[in-house]
Amino acid sequence: MTPEERDALIEAVVGACRSIDPFTRMARAHPAWHDLDDDARQIAYERALVTRELEGALNDETSTARAVLARIG
Amino acid sequence: MTVDLDLHLPLIAAGHRDAFARWMAGAELPMRQSLRSFATRVDVESVMQEALLRTWQIAPRVELDGKPNALLRVSLRIARNLAIDEVRRTRRLCPGDEDIDASLDFAARAEPPDPMLRKWIRHCHERLPARPALALEARLDASEPDAAIAARLGMRLNTFLQNFTRARKLLIECLRARGVDIRELA
Question: I need a labelling partner for A12 at 20 to 30 A (CA). Which of A34, B43, B119, B166 fits?
Fold first, then answer.
């Protein structure tokens, strides 16, 4: 995996779009998360923390909150 | 200064979605921070979304106990239990239980929005180049997969993700130049 490919996978995991398991009705792990090693998973976590802080300041709602509100309906 | 997010609880329990959105605005950061020890073992984002959804469902049954942030403390335990279930399901090594009641500590981290921080973030956001700004905004609506957003914006997927990375990096640099270290806040 090239550094660019690895970074793209990390950034994919940072996003809040998650599919819903049709049987359990629970949010599934992002497919790219399974392809990351521990260091990359930690980076994705830290980036998500910062990203949600920025999103919240810009829009009041983060992408995580929007995903949850969409499920509430 | 800790804020008591339970001020939103009566309306949340009555089914007001907007009140829950306001509660999430204060609760999300401490919840996510509380899951740091699970970051290499579970996809924290999916655990967060599931925990928040269950918090909404359980809110009408949560009783105040005289301490601040009763709902947040419940949600922190939900998040932790979901993460542990996921670790067990995938047979990964479970983090120690030394922080089993860390919910009290994290519940105290709920803070009111900092108007100065918001002002600087908006200031820096207005100075982003067009394509990174577009990528940042487009991804806020979490219902659309990255590939679909990239196609809608006329970008290749990798280019879209690189623009998103660049937007965040430029925002952090701009904030740092103004004395705000967002990484320290997070």
Answer: B119
